[in-house]
Design a protein that fits this description.
InterPro entries: Bud23-like, Bud23_C, Methyltransf_11, SAM-dependent_MTases_sf. One of its GO terms (biological process) is rRNA (guanine-N7)-methylation. The chain is built from 8 helices and 7 strands. By secondary structure, it is an alpha/beta fold. It folds into 2 domains: 228 residues, Rossmann fold, CATH 3.40.50; 38 residues, no CATH class. A 7-stranded mixed β-sheet has the order 3-2-1-4-5-7-6, sandwiched between helices. Helix 2 crosses helix 3 and helix 5 packs across helix 6. The N terminus is likely disordered.
């Protein structure tokens, strides 16, 4: 079997593939790690929450990390099924059904940054006869450029099929007005290697440093919580209280805090 036949974008359109993909714990962990790295590459201010766009948001796993970091976000995805999963999970961001190849329908300067995990390469496929990958990429990048505040960054974690596909993506991004380039983490590792397209809207910036193999933690989840800089452990009482407070600031209905908030229930026999 060739490597190309294993790629999900060659099996069916994204709205179909995402309907049948099951997210196991390992995939969730990887998605969370890539989201964390993408936000790091955004280089956001530490003293204020930002309004971010998540393109190809799926079930909202990346959005969960954005919420944990105290940011507000809006997710766009082509799959109704995946957005339904996000709604069932009660993610804190807003959700929009849309094809990124049709462009981003937002007002100029709406977002402080954009992330996208494992989605951009889908635009390189002509799933319909009317689809032109260069035109769809340019439509996406040009409308995204407009929707970002000047000086904002857009970070795309991608799995390009080959060098030609990577050149097509970057060429259309530059044509739309972006500057920037690729950041390759763990370039000498087959399994850990990750590609991030880092784009700057309106202001040229210095590309971040790559991660090297010696920085790989054998226990990623432990390292993540070790480096959370005093943030509450997930699912603990403080984490729950922080999440409820964020929802109150967003105008959502939240149950009142009680002495039982965050307390583990005794097992039922």
């Amino acid at each position: 079997m060739s490597s190309n036949s294993r790629r999900p974008e060659h099996t069916a359109p994204p709205e179909v593939v995402s309907n049948i993909v099951k997210m196991n714990s390992r995939m969730i962990e990887i998605q969370s790690q890539m989201s964390e790295r993408a936000v790091e590459l955004l280089n956001l201010p530490e003293d204020q929450p930002c309004f971010l766009l998540d393109v190809g948001c799926g079930s909202g796993l990346s959005g969960d990390y954005l919420s944990e970091e105290g940011h507000f976000w809006l997710g766009v995805d082509i799959s109704t099924a995946m957005l339904d999963v996000a709604l069932d999970r009660e993610v804190e961001g807003d959700l929009i059904l849309g094809d990124m190849g049709h462009g981003m329908p937002f007002r100029p300067g709406t977002f402080d940054g954009c992330i996208s995990i494992s989605a951009l390469q889908w635009l390189c496929n002509a799933d319909k006869k009317s689809y032109s990958p260069p035109k769809r990429l340019y439509t996406f990048f040009s409308t995204l450029y407009s929707s970002l505040a000047r000086g904002a960054r857009a970070i795309f974690q991608i799995y390009p099929e080959n060098s030609e596909q990577l050149e097509l993506i970057t060429a259309q991004a530059m044509k739309a007005g972006f500057t920037g380039g690729m950041v390759v983490d763990y370039p000498n590792s087959t399994k850990a290697k990750k590609l991030f397209l880092c784009l700057f809207a309106g202001v040229s910036g210095v590309l971040p440093k790559v991660l090297i193999p010696s920085q790989i933690c054998p226990f990623p989840s432990r390292c993540r919580y070790k480096n959370m800089k005093g943030k509450s452990a997930k699912k603990g009482k403080d984490w729950i209280l922080e999440k409820k407070e964020r929802r109150r600031r967003q105008g959502r209905e939240v149950r009142a805090d009680t002495k039982y908030t965050g307390r583990k229930r005794k097992p039922r026999f």
